[in-house]
Design goal:
The structure is a single chain. With 302 residues, this protein is α+β, with helices and mostly antiparallel strands. It has one domain: outer membrane lipoprotein receptor (LolB), chain A, CATH 2.50.20.10. 16% of the residues lie in helices and 33% in strands. It contains five helices and 16 strands. The strands form two sheets. Strands 1, 2, 3, 4, 5, 8, 9, 10, 11, 12, 13, 14, 15 and 16 form a 14-stranded antiparallel beta sheet that branches. Helix 3 packs antiparallel against helix 5.
Length: 302
C-alpha cells in the first residue's frame, strides 16, 4: 500500500481546499494548468544542527534560517483559527500514485471548518468536491461531514462510464483511496497549517538542509512569497528532497505546494511527487447545512 512521505502527507493536509469562485453557488470552470514562477537571488541559507533534542528544537532562536518559515505558518494558522469559517475553491492537483505520475485534475470544492457557535452548538468539519476535468473524472462528486452518516463519505462516480453510480464509503477504504494520495478527512486549510507547523519544527532538528526565500513569486496573477527547502541528501528512503510552498501575500495563506524526491535507482534525477494549486480563494462565503446535504438539488448524490 502507498505510504506518503511525512512532509508530503502534511502539506496536503488539505490538498483539496481552495481557489474560489464568486460565491457558494458559483464554480470555477477553468481547466488550464497553473502558471507558477519564482525567482531566487543570493545564496541559500544552510541549516546544520546535528543531534538536537526536542526541547532544543522548539527553543531555537528566531535568527535560525527556518524560523521565518515557521513564523509564516504560525501567523497563517492564527488567522485561520480566528477569522476563517469556510471557503469555496478550485484545486488543481497532480499526484504520483503507486509510482505513476498522473495528469492534472481540476476539482471545485466547498470547505467548512469545525467550530463551536453560540450556545455551544457544534459545526462539524465538512467537505463537498466536484471534479471538472479530466473527462474520465468530470462530474464526480464527494461529500463528507465528520461524525455524520457513520463517518462515511457519499460519492458519485462521474466520468464517461457508469457516471450515475453512487454509494457510501469509509474515507480510507481502498475504493475511496483509488487514484488519491490522501483521504478526504485530511483536506482543509487548518489541517494543512497545523501539520506544516509540526513539520517545520521537526525540520529544524534535521542534520542538513538548505532554505531559500523569494518575494518575487507568483501563482497565476497572484503575488506570493516562495519558500524552498532542499535536502542535499535524503535522510531516509522516500524522504522528500525538495519542497516549495507559495504564500499569497494578500491572503497570508498557502496557495501552492510542490514536492520532489529522488528515486533509488537514479538519485540524481528528482521527480515530482505532488503538486497542488489553489486558485481565486474566496473566504467566509457563508456555507450552510444545505451545502453539505446529499439532498441538495444542485448535487447528484442521491
Amino acid at each position: 500500500m502507498h505510504r506518503p512521505c511525512p512532509l508530503a502527507h502534511a502539506l496536503l493536509g488539505a490538498a483539496v481546499l481552495w481557489a474560489a469562485a464568486s460565491g457558494p453557488a458559483a464554480w470555477c470552470q477553468e481547466t488550464t494548468a497553473p502558471s507558477v514562477r519564482q525567482a531566487f537571488s543570493g545564496t541559500a541559507h544552510t541549516v546544520f544542527r546535528p543531534d538536537l533534542t526536542d526541547d532544543q528544537v522548539l527553543g531555537l532562536k528566531l535568527d535560525h534560517p527556518l524560523a521565518p518559515a515557521l513564523e509564516l505558518a504560525l501567523d497563517s494558522y492564527r488567522l485561520v483559527r480566528a477569522d476563517i469559517r469556510d471557503y469555496t475553491c478550485q484545486i488543481v492537483r497532480r499526484e504520483r500514485v503507486e509510482g505513476r505520475l498522473q495528469g492534472y485534475e481540476y476539482l471545485d470544492a466547498k470547505i467548512r471548518h469545525e467550530r463551536t457557535e453560540g450556545a455551544g452548538a457544534a459545526v462539524p468539519f465538512s467537505v463537498y468536491l466536484k471534479f471538472a476535468a479530466p473527462a474520465d473524472l468530470a462530474g464526480r462528486e464527494v461529500l463528507y461531514v465528520r461524525g455524520r452518516n457513520n463517518d462515511q463519505l457519499r460519492a458519485r462516480r462521474g466520468g464517461r462510464r457508469f457516471a450515475y453510480v453512487t454509494g457510501w464509503l469509509p474515507p480510507d477504504s481502498p475504493a475511496a483511496m483509488q487514484g488519491n494520495r490522501y483521504p478526504v478527512t485530511e483536506i482543509g486549510i487548518e489541517n494543512l497549517l497545523r501539520r506544516l507547523i509540526q513539520l517545520a519544527r521537526e525540520e529544524l532538528g534535521r542534520n542538513h538542509c538548505q532554505v531559500r526565500f523569494s518575494d518575487d513569486a507568483r501563482l497565476d496573477d497572484r503575488p506570493c512569497r516562495c519558500l524552498e527547502v532542499i535536502r542535499p541528501k535524503p535522510d531516509q528512503e522516500g524522504m522528500l528532497q525538495r519542497a516549495r510552498i507559495f504564500m499569497d501575500q494578500e491572503l497570508r495563506l498557502p496557495v501552492h505546494f510542490e514536492s520532489y524526491e529522488a528515486p533509488a535507482e537514479r538519485p540524481e534525477d528528482l521527480q515530482l511527487v505532488e503538486q497542488y494549486s489553489y486558485r481565486r480563494v474566496r473566504l467566509n462565503v457563508g456555507l450552510s447545512e444545505a451545502d453539505f446535504d446529499i439532498n441538495n438539488p444542485a448535487y447528484q448524490l442521491k
